[in-house]
Design brief:
Helix content: 25-40%
Number of helices: 10
CATH superfamily of the largest domain: Zn peptidases
CATH class of the largest domain: Alpha Beta
Number of strands: 16
Shape: elongated
Largest sheet: 8 strands, mixed
Oligomer: single chain
Number of domains: 2
Strand order of the largest sheet: 1-2-4-3-5-16-6-15
Bound molecules: nickel (II) ion
CATH architecture of the largest domain: 3-Layer(aba) Sandwich
Radius of gyration: 24 Å
Distance between the termini: 17 Å
């Protein structure tokens, strides 16, 4: 049987050169033209039939196993962030203001490597692999666009696998939990209307700034007083805009922010309390409020069977790892949850930080960088998990 780690390590120069090429040429969501072109070229060089333009700039290819079995979807995200890179690395972004600061350059290079690994054993593969290179993960609807373009059909997908390199944890750590691992995310906007007036004559105005300030404070009671202490939720007000002049009470203010939850009943409670508190506080202050909730991603929930497959694969090929089997790992969100919501699967976290080398800045930081030794580890684990899942589902 193939030794995925040894083979992935042999491919390290390839994976690293791909990763650095993507890193030097980052592209924002739905602008991944060059990246998609490189991906398509590499997949075609394996003799695969490649479909481009799926969900605008996504790329899809199939590896048909010689034996019958399930179709496993493997997904990597390709987009970068509007951040100006400050790593000083020789392979730093050549595009000012755009940076691969989340590791999606790694994900794309890892999946190209997995394509080589699994393509090399296609004669023994009991099932098929749908390689999915997704655009626009960073809050821009990339996964939904690919689903709308039919990525889960023709052939129908039986299980989904994705991964994130994870700089919150060191190299050697693996997060392979069943159940919820990343939060459901939503945005909100609140517009509070009062009555404008002179800053020195407040009794003739209705001050929306004061109402908004009370709203910000009162919303903090949802997590501290309404959420069961053993469950998780976040309510963050992140913008507060109002007023133009020091001596004018403005007629309205606008607030926005984000809500994060895992559990659907907690989510429903948070949204209900949110509206009650905003409306109650605002009307008590003589103002009116309009609230808009924007659902962004569902919680990312790993299928127990797929989680066991990943754990078995990790124990076999990366036995020295610290394998964390209980999540969740972050209140951050991930749009792969839309695919996993329709076809259960597994999202693997692969520790990538190296404190001794100074490679431990968090995701989305302008100095974000990781230990490239994670690349073959992640590729081998993803390939081995795919095979585990196929054997599990056919056997
Ligand atoms: Ni990311």
């Amino acid at each position: 049987m193939i030794d995925f780690l040894t083979e992935a390590q042999k491919l390290f120069p390839y994976t690293q050169s791909m990763r650095r090429d993507f890193h030097m040429h980052p592209e924002l969501g739905h602008q991944e033209i060059r990246t998609a072109g490189v991906v398509a070229r590499e997949l075609k060089s394996l003799g695969l039939e490649v479909t481009t333009g799926v969900g605008k700039t996504g790329v899809v290819a199939m590896i048909e196993g010689a034996k019958p079995g399930p179709v496993i979807l493997l997904r990597a995200d390709m987009d970068a962030l509007p951040i100006h890179e400050e790593t000083g690395a020789e392979y730093a972004s050549r595009t000012p203001g755009v940076m691969h600061a989340c590791g999606h350059d790694a994900h794309t290079a890892i999946l190209l490597t997995v394509a080589k690994l699994l393509h090399s054993i296609r004669q023994e593969l009991p099932g098929s692999v749908k390689l999915v290179f997704q655009p626009a993960e960073e809050g821009m609807g990339g996964a939904e666009g690919m689903i709308a373009d039919g990525v889960l059909e023709n052939p129908k997908v039986d299980a989904t696998l994705g991964l994130h390199i994870w700089n919150e944890q060191p190299l050697g750590w693996l997060g392979l939990a069943a159940g919820p691992v990343m939060a459901g995310t939503e945005g909100f906007q609140i517009r509070i209307r009062g009555k404008g007036g002179h800053g020195a004559i407040p009794h003739l105005a209705v001050d929306p700034i004061l109402a908004g300030a009370h709203v910000v404070s009162a919303l903090q009671s949802i997590v501290s007083r309404n959420t069961p202490p053993l469950q998780a939720a976040v309510v963050s007000v992140t913008t507060f805009h109002g007023g133009e002049a020091f001596n004018v009470i403005p007629p309205h203010v606008e607030l926005s922010g984000t809500i994060r939850t895992f559990d659907l009943s907690v989510r429903a409670m948070v949204l209900r309390r949110f509206d009650e508190i905003v409306q109650g506080v605002v009307s008590g202050m003589g103002c009116e409020a309009e609230i808009e909730h924007i659902r962004m991603t569902p919680a990312l929930i790993n299928d127990p069977q797929a989680a066991r497959a990943a754990q078995r694969a990790a124990q076999r090929i990366l036995p020295e790892s610290h394998i964390e089997t209980s999540g969740p790992f972050t209140m951050g969100g991930e749009d792969f949850a839309f695919m996993m919501e329709q076809v259960p699967g597994m999202f693997l976290f692969v520790g990538s930080a190296n404190h001794e080398k100074g490679l431990s800045y968090g995701h989305h930081h302008p100095k974000f960088d990781f230990d490239e030794a994670v690349l073959p580890r992640a590729a081998a684990l993803l390939a081995a998990t795919t095979l585990e899942l196929m054997e599990n589902r056919t056997g």
